[in-house]
Design goal:
The chain has 15 helices and no strands. By secondary structure, the protein is an all-alpha fold. Helix 5 packs antiparallel against helix 6 (124-136). It starts with a helix and ends with a helix.
């Protein structure tokens, strides 16, 4: 074999070894990557083990429900289809860790476990303790659950309907009944008299909600005059939701549950704003609501209304709203 042939053969062997080496390294890298990639459950377990109260809560709920719950932390995805074996004892363990850190959602869930005896021995005192802690932080589900305890005299508390509806009222303010239609209908049918008492004592939130009840007919007969009466009372005291509701009722294309909105004086006091057109009055209330509230609903409604008004009318509404604020400043 010539020297040239020996050289070519050496290069062939070296090339083969290099290719095999590269393939081997790639295989090792892929294996390492696969072995270190965590599942969503493992990510949740890792965060919980590192003391993240939200992760501890949701890991507890995951073990309780048998699937991954909605996880909101960055890097963790929601996957309700990933099957996970239920483990009530582990659920209680992780919920307790989270609850002891003051996480309200976990406190309510732990109270529910103690109430039912799932994963822990049934214990009314501990159930009540954790429900109270969650309710004190404004957790809507805990407020409702505690309210039911007082309404029915269960879980070791004495029956107290006034206390029950006070808690239901707080739960509604936190938006609980928007997501629980069955409970909402039961609550609406019972709570009108409670709202009326609070509204009579000047509670603007109760006045607004009572007005909305009379507007929609939830729990009380539909009554447009009473609806406007209570909405005006709340609006006069600066309740942005009532101001927004009045603006929506009377603006063209708005929420007209009345056949003729001009039939009523829609101002906050007799004679106030009634010399303006419906559009201008609606704009005044929406401007006031936009100033007072933190949501964008009033701003959106106002932007829809402005193209239907002349620049002069818009300025008139702004001036009237400014004067109203000066007159009603507390």
């Amino acid at each position: 074999m010539s020297l040239r042939q020996i050289g070519l053969r050496f290069l062939e062997v070296l090339g083969s070894l290099t290719l095999l080496g590269l393939l081997g390294m790639a295989s090792l890298w892929l294996y390492a990557a696969a072995s270190t990639e965590m599942t969503e459950l493992e990510k949740l377990q890792n965060a919980a083990a590192n003391g993240d109260a939200e992760a501890q809560c949701e890991l507890g709920l995951t073990y309780n429900e048998g699937h991954l719950v909605n996880v909101t932390r960055t890097g963790l995805d929601h996957d309700e289809d990933e099957p996970i074996k239920e483990n009530p004892e582990q659920a209680a363990t992780w919920l307790r860790k989270s609850a002891e850190q003051g996480y309200a959602r976990a406190q309510h869930a732990l109270g529910t476990l103690y109430s039912s005896g799932r994963g822990v021995p049934e214990n009314d005192d501990k159930a009540l303790k954790w429900e109270r802690k969650a309710a004190d932080q404004g957790n809507p589900a805990a407020l409702y659950s505690l309210g039911r305890n007082y309404e029915h005299g269960s879980n070791g508390v004495s029956k107290d309907k006034s206390k029950a509806f006070e808690l239901y009222y707080k739960a509604e303010k936190e938006g609980y009944f928007k997501h629980h239609k069955l409970f909402r209908q039961q609550y609406y049918s019972k709570s009108a008299s409670y709202y009326y008492k609070r509204a009579q004592h000047g509670d603007t939130s109760a006045q607004y909600r009572l007005g909305e009840r009379f507007k929609s007919g939830d729990g009380v007969p539909r009554d447009r005059e009473k609806a406007l009466k209570w909405l005006r009372k709340a609006a006069r005291q600066g309740n942005a939701h009532a101001q927004y509701s009045l603006g929506q009722i009377i603006r063209p294309g708005g929420v007209h549950f009345y056949s003729d909105s001009t039939e009523f004086n829609l101002g906050s006091d007799p004679g106030e704003f009634n010399f303006h057109s419906d559009k201008t009055v609606a704009a005044i209330w929406l401007i006031l609501a936009k100033t007072n509230e933190t949501t964008t609903d009033a701003a959106f409604a106002l932007n829809e209304l402005k193209p239907k008004m002349s620049p002069a009318k818009i300025e008139t509404a702004k001036d009237a709203a400014q004067e109203w604020r000066k007159k009603h400043r507390h």
